[in-house]
Amino acid sequence: MLLGIGASDKTKGETNMALVNPYATATKILSVSLLALAVSQANAGEPAKMKAGAVDITPSLNISESRSDNIYSSPNNEESSNILVINPGILAEIVHGDSLYSLNAELSDGTYSDGLAKDDDYTDYIIAADADIALNQSNKIMLGASISENHEDRGDGVTQGTTGFATPVEYDEDIYSAGYRLGNDDSMLSFELGAGRLDKEYTNFKALTAIRSYEKDDYGLTVYYKLAPKTDLLVEYNTASFEYDVAVSAAQNLDSDEDKILVGAVWEATGNTTGTVKLGQVDKEFDSASRDDFSGTIWLAQVDWTPSEQTSVSVYSTQEPKETSVGNGNFVDGTMTGASWTQGWTDSISTTVAFGTGDDDYDETNRSDDVTNYGISLDYEFRRWLSIGVAYDFDERDSNINAFDYERNIYSLNVSRH
Length: 418
Description:
Radius of gyration: 22 Å
Structural class: mainly beta
Distance between the termini: 22 Å
Strand content: over 45%
Helix content: under 10%
Number of helices: 3
Largest sheet: 18 strands, antiparallel, barrel
């Protein structure tokens, strides 16, 4: 999907725990083309803010009307529908010295227009709070929390390859996190500690979905060594435990412990090039003796190049295990590689092109998927705070199990008040 394919990564000055920023982790953009619009706005001016004493308030509104030719991700007998997504939000921020406090609320309401697809209407929301507290130049505390109600489109997530669900699957996701940073950009050595908890609970069709609800506790440490003024080497260790609410049987228990260690570098080669590369090992040990433990290579890499204010290019690649949401596999060993290019042609007109390709291998099963997505968008900024855009997105899953194959084309018109 257009520009949703980038690998979110950490740089020095951020904790090694993704959970410390729950808003970035939990928010699900429900219209793929809105991602293109959001990125193209990188060339736009600052969002329109309102002042309420010490509080900066930034309202936003995204409206997307799209046409999908395969709303259920089906291998055949595809269903088409128009989808109207209204996505209002509000962000409140307080800057106090070098500290930042924020509260964000966002709603996503989707309405389908065609036939049985009207049963797929949804309303999701997220509320997130973050605090980056600078105790002094070299000591910083990061706190975060979010609560959200979400959905999975029929044919996605738990319902991949099935047709027996009358409405979308719904789930709640709560994320809590804390981090501490010792050091700053000029320190020879810097340290970051992180801890987080994710609680994902499916709330309907529980006879089928309860076995996919789980909690994840996550702890990590990253050590940075300054190699040059704009380059840091790093060593990162992360340990996580996954505890599922329900197991069909003791033998099918998916509870596990996961340890990762990575080495790499973070750099800013010039004023317009930044990058992060990490390579390491993951060990995943299951509580159930009937499931084979796993050990393998993981990596995360992203390079962003901005040669001018009008041009930005990103290239990324990731490989890491993911929890499986369907079938009897132990986990999903996923790899994804892609790139995006955003170009501002005038002060008001910009385009974005993106492409991604990868594979998902379901451990201890014979399922293997090849995934491809690409897209293009054209955006016009009427005002500093108002944009309109059109987009085309294509995504495909080619599986060795025919029930999981699909192709999908999405055409979108987007309006954004930012």
